[in-house]
Amino acid sequence: MIEIDKLVSEDGAYVSREIFGDADIHKLEMKQVFGRSWLFLAHETQLPDSQDYLTTFMGEDPVIVIRQEDGTLKAFLNACTHRGPLLCASEEGNATNFTCPYHGWVFGSSGDLLDVPHEGSSGWHNELNKERHGLKPIRVESYKGLYFGNFDEQAPSLDDYLGDYKWYVDAIFSPLPTGVEFLGGPMRQRLQCNWKVASENIFADTYHVFAAHGQAARICMEGKEGGIGIEENDDKEGDALGVAVTVNGHSMGLHFDGMGAYVLNKNMAEWMAYLGSQRENYIKHLGPRRGMMPGSSINGGIFPNFMFVPGFTFRQIHPLGPNECEIWMWTVVEKDMPLELKHEQVKANARMLGTSGLFETDDCANMERIDNTVSAYQGSKLISNYSMGLGREQKRDDLPGLTDQRMSDTGFRGYYRRWALFMKADKSSDIPLDAPRSIEGAE
Question: CATH number, domain at 132?
Answer without folding.
Answer: 2.102.10.10
